[in-house]
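Working notes for the structural subgroup meeting. M.R. asked for a predicted model of this chain before we commit to crystallization trials. I am recording the input and output together here so anyone reviewing the notebook later can reproduce the run.

Input as submitted:
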Amino acid sequence: MITLGKVGRTAFDDLFGGKFGLESNAVLQGPTFGVDTSIVQISEELVLVVASDPASFIPALGVKESAWLTVALTANDIATSGYLPKYAQVVLNLTHKITNEELTEYWNYIHQFCTEIGVSITGGHTGFADVGASTLAGGVTMFAVAENDHVKCSSFALPHQDLILTKTAALSSAAILAKSFPNHTKQHLGNKAYEDLAASFYQTSIVPEVKVLKNMPNIMQNISAMHDVTEGGSLGAIYELCEAGGVGVKVNVDAIHVDENQRAICNLFEIDPLRSVGAGSLLIACEKSVSERILNEFNNNAIQASIVGETLPVDEGKTIVSRSGEDEFKYWNVDPYWAAFFDAVENGLS
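Returned structure, recorded in token form:
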């Protein structure tokens, strides 16, 4: 059965079944559940880091905002390597209803955001189609050249490390819902909450966190893995990183930070903030000896962060600890954000 959003673990294995073209020893990290990037050896000391994500065009959200998502989400994936993206290929499959003015504005902002991050656009493809209600408008692939000995990947997680999450859960889903349905949000949550949620939209980048970490090379050496919180939310990201790394985990669900406004709008749209799209939040697996220094440095740069659990040997399993007790940590295949968004569109919310 096809479900909305990113393909789940079981569907990933059933669909692809390890069939990824010609095998190559140069591919150090290939397609795997829970991994943001691929890593390809290009010399004895250097690797090419590659990541792809959908391009977005969401009329209800806005042209500038759509361009931001198109650039930021792929840049986030590359940034989990500990390096920033340098090159991009952009494929656009846009609605045939887009106007020339919207198209020009959309591309100008893609150019602007890539320039600000430091990304050169090297090519792509552009076309138009009757895409219906889809908000997906093609795809973006970004590249970075990294040192083999210093690159990070979610599959590099090790047992007995702290897990740190930045910012708030449901950061991107809350911002997109507020900006897409401003009248509904203002009516139920008030103007101030709406304004704060709308302003949080441009916090959906983990590039600021990675820049902070890159300024601390001694700390960076003690970080084994990083993962971008996207579909499946904070809990989904933790599960994915641990699956990719082949480790167990104990998650303190009460330690996962949810800002008041994010919690309020998630309640309004009846979605779980811990399992909803959370782009802009970074998950870090690090040695316990450096955790407090990471938290302090983030705090000095006005980035909220907290320790939310620890990795364990794989035979110790995955558990969630909360005020109500301890339970098995199971993967949730469906992100509730997608149904909430499209239900709101169908119900005529504005």
